Amino acid sequence: QSTWGNILFFTFFFTFLLRMNFFVFVVLIYLFFHIGNTIHANNFAVLVGASKYWFNYRHTAGTLAMYHSLKRLGMPDSNIILMLAEDSACNPRNPRPAEVFSRSLDLNLYQDGIEVDYRGAEVTVENLLRVLTGRHDPAVPQSQRLLTDEKSNVLVYITGHGGDGFLKFQDKQQLTSQDLADAFSQMHEQKRYHEVLFMIDTCQASTMFEKFTAPSIVAIASSLRAENSYAYGVDNRIGLSLADRFTLFTLNWLETQPKNSNSTIGE
Questions:
Q1: Quick one: pLDDT band at residue 33, thresholds 50, 70, 90?
Q2: What is the C-alpha R_g of the chain?
Q3: From CA 135, how far away is CA 168, in angstroms rounded?
Q4: Cβ 172 vs Cβ 123: under 8 Å
Q5: What's the distance, CA 153 to chain centroid?
Q6: Residue 229 above 60 pLDDT?
């Protein structure tokens, strides 16, 4: 009886182990194919003020205001690539030296601790595309690289002057809609993002994402084809507009959000 009892015991024991192993195997397969590829784990941003010259103050200010909002919401500098073609804070025509304002003159956006990754002549079409695709010269420091992976949600915000299918950099170069489409396709192939929120504030802005084919990209534009994007008023103390309308109202909404907000684009 003891022999048969031992046989039955080990039979049930090994059957249990086999079933458990099979269960674990099934769970692991499920996690790999259904969860591992869809989890969002971190947030990054690329913020680009592409315009040069003092009279484009609002483009620099809007980019800095976006940077300020993201920092307030908890995004660290290590996850933000900030590109500013014009140093409005140090422009000799600035009546408030070393300061930049957007929504009001109550908040200086050019405070201690700001980290500009690309400034002046460094803000080029080539450098933006290299940031997005990760195709850098080995000498480029980590602080100037977008260190994303397949679990990263990425905000790409660009403001400047543009037209049908292009946006001007420094008033010398043009970023085309095909350039952007190719860059995002490469990012997808290289598993450099989970989802992308692409925001662009320029004239005929929607034409800049008409050629996108990469998946999981939500694109928002300040204007449609044949439409202009407008500045919002003029501040007499600075002598220029401090913001573009689209960016201003976006910032007004962002500033209402707490750090733990679960608000969505749809809302």
A1: very low
A2: 25
A3: 22
A4: no
A5: 8
A6: yes
Strand 118-119 to 173-176 pairing: unpaired
CA dist 193 → 67, 151, 225 (Å):
20, 6, 28
DSSP classification of residue 84: E
Does the active-site annotation cover 203? yes
Q: Alpha-carbon distance 151 to 154, whole Å? A: 10
90 counts as catalytic: no
Cα separation, 161 vs 228, whole angstroms: 10
What gap in Å lies between CA 101 and CA 90, rounded to an integer?
13
Q: Which amino acid is at 31?
A: L
Number of Cβ atoms within 10 Å of the Cβ of 243: 27
Detail the DSSP E strand segments found in 78-117: 80-84
Q: Which of 59, 161, 188, 194 is catalytic?
A: 161
- Rounded to 5°, the CA angle 212-169-203 comes to 60
Give pLDDT, residue 259.
86
Residues 6+ away with beta carbon under 8 Å from 28: none
Return the pLDDT at 261: 82
How far apart, in whole angstroms, are the C-alpha atoms of residue 50 and residue 94?
19
Nearest to 80 by CA among 14, 154, 18: 154
From 59, 68, 194, 203, the catalytic residue:
203
Q: Measure the CA–CA gap between 55 and 59, rounded to whole angstroms.
A: 9
C-alpha dist (Å) from residue 90 to 30, 96, 100, 106: 55, 9, 9, 19
